[in-house]
């Protein structure tokens, strides 16, 4: 073999010896796959629940900066666990405006759903008693009536009377549906007294589990 051929072969071996897989992945390249686990947990009822550690105080609730919102952390509000919840506004059966942020200082549970949803019916049946026992503000948002048309004040009145609820809201302009639901399933939101989101659930939530969480947040 000529001297030139030996030099070429040596150069190839040198380059090959200096090449390593990228980011520790065999064969090189980057992975865009998230680690397994995390997010919500599904139970046998088909509900998906996200919970935040109630012993952890998010940065948004520690700042004390009310900005223009009047709520500490309100200028960085969100709809994810650990964030200060953005304001949720609806109108009750008396036509009066109800605001989540107006309840600052008290734990709050908000249930959003439609009359034909069995999970919504079951949660509505025990919500007032559970919230009263734990001194928690409770509000139900009735999106659709049994005929699957957007709920009106008369539908909310009937729902309140049927389930012994004090606050049933309607979503006249569709803002709550757009901002607070991403599914036709019932949504259950729990906020602590600083309106930090402590639970975000889809579908049915066992009354005992909800009671246990609310009792931790109870003043």
Features:
7-stranded mixed β-sheet; two-stranded antiparallel ribbon; 6 helices; globular; disordered N terminus
Gyration radius from CA atoms, angstroms: 26 Å
SS strand fraction: 15-25%
Contiguous low-pLDDT stretches (5 residues minimum) are 2-45, 53-67
How many strands, which pairing sense, and closed or not: the largest β-sheet?
A: 7 strands, mixed
Structural class estimated from helices and strands: alpha+beta
Count of beta strands: 9
Rounded average pLDDT: 78
- Please count the helical segments: 6
Helix content: 25-40%
Query: H/E element string?
Result: HEEHEEEHEHEHEEH
Side by side, the strands of the main sheet go 1-2-9-8-5-6-7
**What is the rounded distance between the termini?**
88 Å
Shape descriptor reads globular
Summarize the structure.
It contains six helices and nine strands. The protein has 219 residues and is of the alpha+beta class. The relative contact order is 0.17.
Topology of helices and strands:
Elements: H1 3-17, E1 41-42, E2 48-51, H2 59-62, E3 89-91, E4 97-99, E5 108-113, H3 118-133, E6 137-142, H4 153-163, E7 168-170, H5 175-180, E8 187-191, E9 197-202, H6 207-217
Parallel strand pairs: 5-6, 6-7
Antiparallel strand pairs: 1-2, 2-9, 3-4, 5-8, 8-9
Helix pairs in contact: 3-6
């Amino acid at each position: 073999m000529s001297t030139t051929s030996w030099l070429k072969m040596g150069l190839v071996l040198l380059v090959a010896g200096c090449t390593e897989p990228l980011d520790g992945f065999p064969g090189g390249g980057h992975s865009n796959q998230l680690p397994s686990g995390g997010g919500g947990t599904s139970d046998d009822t088909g509900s998906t629940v996200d919970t935040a550690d109630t012993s952890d105080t998010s940065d948004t609730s520690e700042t004390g900066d009310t900005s223009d919102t009047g709520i500490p952390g309100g200028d960085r509000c969100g709809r994810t666990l650990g964030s200060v919840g953005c304001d949720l506004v609806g109108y009750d059966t008396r036509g009066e405006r109800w605001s989540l942020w107006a309840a600052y200082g008290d734990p709050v549970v908000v249930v959003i759903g439609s009359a034909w949803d069995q999970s919504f019916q079951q949660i509505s049946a025990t919500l007032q008693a559970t919230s009263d026992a734990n001194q928690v503000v409770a509000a139900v948002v009735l999106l659709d009536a049994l005929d699957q048309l957007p709920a009106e004040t008369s539908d909310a009145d009937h729902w309140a009377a049927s389930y012994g609820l004090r606050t049933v809201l309607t979503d006249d302009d569709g803002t709550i549906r757009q901002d607070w639901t991403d599914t036709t399933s019932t949504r259950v939101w729990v906020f602590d007294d600083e309106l930090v989101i402590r639970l975000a659930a889809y579908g049915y939530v066992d009354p005992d589990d909800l009671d246990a969480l609310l009792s931790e947040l109870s003043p």
